[in-house]
Amino acid sequence: MITLTSDFGSPYPAAMKGVLCAHTDARLVDIAHDFPRQDVRTTAFWLREVLPYFPPATHLVVVDPGVGTDRAALAIRAGEHVLVGPDNGVLAPVARQLADRHGGAPDDDESSAGIEPFEIVVDDPESATFHGRDVFAPAAALAHEAGVGHLAACDEFVPTDGYEDLRFPEPAVGSGDATGEILVVDGFGNAITNVPGAVLDGRFGERIDVDGERVPVARSYAHVAAGERLVTVGSHGNVELAANRGRGDETFGVGVGDPIELAFE
Amino acid sequence: MITLTSDFGSPYPAAMKGVLCAHTDARLVDIAHDFPRQDVRTTAFWLREVLPYFPPATHLVVVDPGVGTDRAALAIRAGEHVLVGPDNGVLAPVARQLADRHGGAPDDDESSAGIEPFEIVVDDPESATFHGRDVFAPAAALAHEAGVGHLAACDEFVPTDGYEDLRFPEPAVGSGDATGEILVVDGFGNAITNVPGAVLDGRFGERIDVDGERVPVARSYAHVAAGERLVTVGSHGNVELAANRGRGDETFGVGVGDPIELAFE
Amino acid sequence: MITLTSDFGSPYPAAMKGVLCAHTDARLVDIAHDFPRQDVRTTAFWLREVLPYFPPATHLVVVDPGVGTDRAALAIRAGEHVLVGPDNGVLAPVARQLADRHGGAPDDDESSAGIEPFEIVVDDPESATFHGRDVFAPAAALAHEAGVGHLAACDEFVPTDGYEDLRFPEPAVGSGDATGEILVVDGFGNAITNVPGAVLDGRFGERIDVDGERVPVARSYAHVAAGERLVTVGSHGNVELAANRGRGDETFGVGVGDPIELAFE
Fold first, then answer.
1. Which end of chain C has less Cβ packing within 10 Å, N or C?
2. Is the bond preceding residue B11 a cis peptide, omega within 30 degrees?
């Protein structure tokens, strides 16, 4: 199975699918092609949330503002999965997540614990502006056909000792409060923070302070009236600012990158 | 085969696909993921129109404003199909349609005639806000693997004697007139009514009154000039208010829920 | 394999998928369903760019402003591919492209060189407004099941000696200048011209005049600063007006159909 992720909109993903189908009979599954254009961080967040639900697969990821420059092209074995995409950080958080879930013994070093990065040998692609089609799709097909344990046997994949990392900001969680920030806003308008949902344990049905205002804590959206705001634990496990049948980002007046303060007493 | 329908936009459907692929090799086909958010009625309309064209399949449907509340989770056998989704009415019209097409003897009662509802046993899902991923996708995979005739053999499906219904308003059709309402507007701007297309039989090329104004009746859009409005029979079999190479809803000034009066003499 | 292309948005493509799945087990791959509505020329451009990357397949194409009129329905063998859609020009450019790549001997006439057009026999379809579902999807399934070399053996496909052509305007390329026009603008805002990229050979890192203003020529977007404009060779092989991390169409102030003048000295 090969999954596809990009910021291409339409119809460029279809050219990648054509190349994949010309090289392999692998099943193709779209993750999304409408990530905010050139937004490496948002894409990295969603890949980390979504890809771990898949069985072992090859994941083709092309959000690539540096296409055609000298940024490297990567294939990363992460646990039983392979990630293929540009070396700009977009693959790093999900690689850690997949390796944690399927990794080796705890005392292994990072590589043997589940992450093996390779640089893809790029040999004069047809275009300098569409490596998704001309570099990454062929590499993903090759990785799929080789199999997750056999990348090192392919001349096209050269072991590398590093790649660009990307870390999400850490929240500060105290006994009676927590500070963090809005990481992403989803299509419903739910504002997803980096604060772990565990801070709301035992508080459903109560109220807490969010940026100084009292807000109900609810298990899910429809536990408050239509249009009313709430804080809940989203499907990603983090605290989420939401509004029942409305947009949390607009109701709370927050956007990506905004700081957020929660106080529980 | 498992089809997927939601109002999730992107990328949440991919998490459901991951769960499905982890549980089954069934073929996956997207119906749509951009239905108006939390709009049970519009989704129910389109499911009724689209799903009957499929061969027997399991249909995963998640338009679920009550996620995380005590609304039940349903698996409904309807003819040779299985529908999986929340108990909010979204499955009811298509269940009737599928049962009518593939049902048992006319004197059977509803259940044996083709509709068998089951309540899905929900056992502490990972999240309270994403039952599409944590409840309905696993249930759809289970239903597919069990097979349409074997739901009752699964502990996870408990026969139930009722579920929430949803009925579209009935039109009033006389010998020279008809009154109804706009059920949905499609992406082209065609305003789809609940008036059966049969009222236009024999009138193509003529004009009728629509809300008091004379409008041409045409077999299809391009039978009138570009920009001109028309009434026709849409692909769903109902009267549709349209404009050639334009938007019918804007040209007629109508929207979902508006009453509509047709007069033929 | 059957690919699907339309301007339907959602959820009408799903009805076509249902019909296809009811007639064939062929793999289905979406090209795009969000082409500008009724825009035959833009769709024809993208099909010509994308479909040649696919292995031999049947391609179902429904951008069909004349649905329900007497325009013909076509199945065209083009090289090892089959194209199915309305006779309005949308299939013509890609048919030539596919035939060129996989065609017969150079001295063959057009038909034996790789293009064989057939008219689809249309026998009282269920609707006059959705031939994608009622005419073209069944025909695509039939063509797939028959196989690319066996269309003539099907009663439903009648050889025809002509169909509507569509040609993109030709650029005028001199030794020190070129004039052309903007053919399409992609989702990133890149303005794609009809001027062949070869005019930029050897000029990367230099500047040329675009409509009288000096603009850098770059191999790819990130070779100029964020927000800065550039001319490059797009993945289609043509000159493209772009902006790094911005929209080329807005930065240059151009749109589809606008003339463009390049001067190199």
1. C
2. yes
Helix, strand, coil percent content, chain C, rounded in steps of 5:
25, 30, 45
Chain A residues with CB under 8 Å of B129 CB are 220-221, 232-235, 240
Report helix angle B12-23 to A40-50, nearest 10: 30
Cβ C127–B222 below 8 Å, yes or no?
A: no
Q: A240 is written with which tokens?
A: 């989420």
The complex's ipTM?
Answer: 0.94
pLDDT in tens, C168-202: 999 999 999 999 999 999 999 999 999 999 999 99
Chain A neighbors of B125, CB-CB under 8 A: none
Q: What residue type is assigned to position A239 of the chain?
A: V
CB within 8 Å: A35 and B68: no
* CA–CA separation, B63 and B94 (whole Å): 14
The structural domains of chain A, ordered by start, are: 2-159 (3.40.50.10790), 172-263 (2.40.30.90)
C188 lies within 8 A of chain A by CB: yes
- C-alpha to C-alpha distance for B223 and B204, rounded to whole angstroms: 10
> Which residue in B46, B54, B186 is closest to C22 by CB distance?
B54
Letter for the amino acid at C259?
Answer: P
DSSP B230: E
Nearest to A19 by CA among A102, A139, A109, A150: A139
Residues C43-60: pLDDT tens digits? 999 999 999 999 999 999
Residues A163 and A101: their CA atoms lie apart, in Å, by 21
Q: What is the pLDDT of residues C8-34, one digit of tens each?
A: 999 999 999 999 999 999 999 999 999
Nearest residue of B to residue C9, measured between CA atoms: B187
Angstroms from A136 CA to nearest CA on chain B: 20
Give the DSSP H/E element, type plus range, for residue B94.
helix B92-102
pLDDT by residue (tens digit) across C207-225?
Answer: 999 999 999 999 999 999 9
CB distance from C116 to chain A under 8 Å?
no
